[in-house]
Amino acid sequence: LGVTTSAQPRPEANGPVGAFTINAGAAYTKTAAVTLTLSPTDASTVTQVCLTSVLPCTAWQPYSTSKTFALSAPDGSKTVYALFKDQWNNLSSVAAQQSIVLDTTLPTTGTASSVFGDASNVVSWTASSDTNFDKYRVFFATLTAPTTCAGTLAYEGTALTFTHSSLINGTTYGYRVCALDRAGNYSLGVTTSAQPRPEANGPVGAFTINAGAAYTKTPAVTLTLSPTDASRVTQVCLTSALPCTAWQTFATTMTFALSAPDGSKTVFALFK
What letter does residue 131 receive in the DSSP assignment? Predict the structure, then answer.
């Protein structure tokens, strides 16, 4: 009756030698979806690839030089394996493998503070607790802090404080301090603000009532204000009872209304 056999002639019998990178060789990723760049070598045309995180691999698919692969949760070191077949159905003898750390967790930052100086602000913050911490980035804007970790960069590094120099005195600067990990995750950031100024001493107040008169026959009196300060005095608050909250534009002469009834009256003046 006879016996049978079959064979497929082919020019060579060596399987492809696998090679690939994950996210162009990055050590960390903040997303589970990564890009594999495949570069096997073979004497023939590579036609199929099998990608897996656990061997053996059975899900063969058409070969292309770039493939998307989904890493599994949770965060941590992940290994990807790749096997290849060529047009003659020759199979890689060894699976190629590469590893990457999956980190989807945002870094934390605690608090931030700032102290003004002459044309400068010193910004400080507490340390990040992220396992894969890389560095801090401090973004700034005038008037208010940036709402996200983006915009104009004032500082980048690992220190917990920096001095922002060459500022305009009298302008408020807002800061957002953001921690960045090696996977590229930003913390939500913490904010602070400060207004640089050349000196920090308040005015020393001085004034007279009706040019120093001891008595007045009318409730409306004239205050002659003469505060001293290293800078320009811009505001004054006048009251007959502390605390004083009604601030107004400073002038060297102001009118003030004494309250009834007759008797000794005290006037208080605060200056900015």
Answer: T
Residue 8 has pLDDT above 80, yes or no: no
CB 176 within 8 A of CB 129: no
- What is the amino acid identity at position 244? C
**Token representation of residue 212:** 């120093």
Residue 9 has pLDDT above 80, yes or no: no
Contacts of 95 (CB under 8 A, 6+ apart): 18, 55, 57, 81, 82, 83
* pLDDT at residue number 65: 98
Q: What percent of the chain has pLDDT over 90?
A: 93
Q: How far apart are CA 114 and CA 195, in angstroms?
A: 9
Beta strand 60-62 with 46-52 is antiparallel
Closest CA to 175 of 212, 207, 136, 202: 136
CA distances from 213 to 142, 216, 222 (A): 48, 7, 10
